[in-house]
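Reply to dn_fold:

You asked what the input looked like. This is it:
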Amino acid sequence: MKKLSQEQKDKIKAGLELLCEENTTLDKLQKLSELIKDTSALADKKIKQVLDIADRVRKIQEGDVIYLSLENLSEDTPKKKDRKKLLLLLLKNWKDLQSEIERIHRIQETAAVSGLTSKDSVVKTGKTLLTMKGPLGAVTIIAAGIVALTTFLNNKAVNIEVKNYGCSPISTHMQKDINIPGLKLPSEDIISGERGQITIPGIDISVDLTKKGGAKIKALNFSKEFNYSGEIKDIIYDGKSLMGKNNIIKLGESKDHELIINCGSNIKG
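and this is what came back:
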């Protein structure tokens, strides 16, 4: 991805504000199209789809305002059924567009904060962030987002010791290509029976493990979902199991923490 000018970054921020509104009009969408033009091929494609669907919605409803919600939307006439179908399609493309613009914004802001000013560094950072997978990948992407808000740099760092009990190696090799101030990850993959350390600011993090085989991590306004291996039997943070729960982890409560990833081995101290 090319490095954007400050003017382009300002336009992306303005576009994000429009994308966060609860309703829209064709005039707003035209303005949004101008703001995000040429930021990425996917964004250009999605805004065209959004414009086309919104125009079709406007033609079968009264008024120009399009509410981006299906709440209390009836289907008691063929016309209303058609409108609801179009709104479903509009909302899907709207969310895709929003995600793409947020992605571009995060990458550009992270590159700026990290001092990655060369074109090659920006491209490398962006590509690496996009391919992040697994729990440490989720931590890295969220950290990148927090850096963009500068909050990351204003929190006292804490240490999390990650222990692998009987699991496949916990990969860290992709994270080595990311330079995010305040974040430190293990230099080597964490193999079974060994441990590694993460350093991260002491913020509150939501870890949702209610879905079997899937997890969602949230911090501030940023979130990341990932699937984890079925071999994992338990995830224990500071002596308490997180599995099957929606957990709020307050990292700032202590300087040092322990995270155990257990795949069935007998846990020893």
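The mean pLDDT is 77.
Hope that clears it up.
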